[in-house]
Amino acid sequence: MKARVGCIPCFVKQGLSAVRLSTQDPVAQQRVLDEVLRRIQGLSLDSSPALLSQIVYAAVREMTGVADPFAEARRRTNRLALALLPDLRRRIAASPDPLHIAIKAALIGNVVDFVVGQAFDLERDLAQGLETDLAVDDYPAFRAALKDCETSASSAGPRLLYICDNSGEIAFDRLLIEDLRTRCQVTASVKSRPIINDATMQDAEEVGLPAVAKVIETGSDDIGVNWSRASREFVEAFRAADLVIAKGQGNFETLDETPGEIFFLLKAKCPEVAAELGVAEGAHIFLRSRARRPR
Question: What pTM value is reported for the model?
Answer without folding.
Answer: 0.91
